[in-house]
Design a protein that fits this description.
This protein has 6 helices and 9 strands; from the N terminus they run H-H-E-E-H-E-E-E-E-H-E-E-E-H-H. It is α+β, with helices and mostly antiparallel strands and 205 residues long. A hairpin with a 5-residue loop joins strand 7 and strand 8.
């Protein structure tokens, strides 16, 4: 009995150590376990669901999947920009729109946008969809965003409560200043934001 109990204790401690090491390895390379397990909705060019796939695999294979991008504006018509956390597995430390992510199966675009806005920026507001389009953006790490993107807007005048695992900083900028800064310092912004902002700017102009 004593030997069996000792073996169980040793095995439990070994499993806990392996799990700790695995999680630590994910963080070293910029991955979180949720990044490996999260699934995205694969779609055709009409945004009709054709399957599900783990997010990382979809990005490795550059398969078209459903996504959304949120632009939150204040009463001065300034856009809330987010600086991505420095531990993100792609585009760390770069500036981008207020938040963006992927819809879960059975979740509406608006529901997804509100959920992610709370998860990343720590606040809620009403959202409405402006437009959608398909884009593709390769990254330096070999992954590719190929998304059917639903662009949404909302209003907010407060201070966000950032999730440090998602966002390192934030600021307000008017659209004209963002356009100018992207032209002068494109290396500071995510690849998808540069594409999406151009569409957004044309939409509001």
């Amino acid at each position: 009995m004593a030997g069996s109990l000792i073996n169980r204790i040793v095995l439990t401690e070994l499993c806990e150590s392996l799990l700790f090491c695995a999680n630590a390895s994910f963080r070293i390379f910029g991955f979180e376990r949720k990044d490996l397990e999260e699934k995205v909705i694969l779609v055709n060019e009409n945004d009709e669901q054709i399957g599900l796939m783990e997010k990382i695999e979809a990005h490795e294979k550059a398969l078209l999947h459903r996504a959304f991008s949120v632009f939150v504006l204040n009463d001065k018509n300034e856009i809330m920009l987010q600086q991505r956390a420095h531990n993100k597995y792609h585009s760390p430390g770069l500036w981008t729109n207020t938040c963006c992510s992927h819809q879960r199966e059975g979740e509406s675009n608006i529901e997804a946008g509100k959920r992610r806005l709370m998860e990343e920026m720590g606040f809620q507001t009403e959202l409405k969809e402006l437009f959608n389009f398909i884009y593709i953006a390769p990254f330096d790490n070999g992954l590719t965003e190929h998304e059917f993107d639903h662009v949404m807007v909302g209003s907010f005048n407060g201070t966000p409560n950032l999730n440090p695992d998602e966002a390192a900083d934030w600021k307000w900028m008017d659209a004209a200043s963002v356009k100018k800064d992207i032209a002068q310092r494109p290396q500071l912004y995510t690849e998808w934001f540069k594409i999406i902002f151009d569409k957004y700017y044309k939409h509001i102009s």
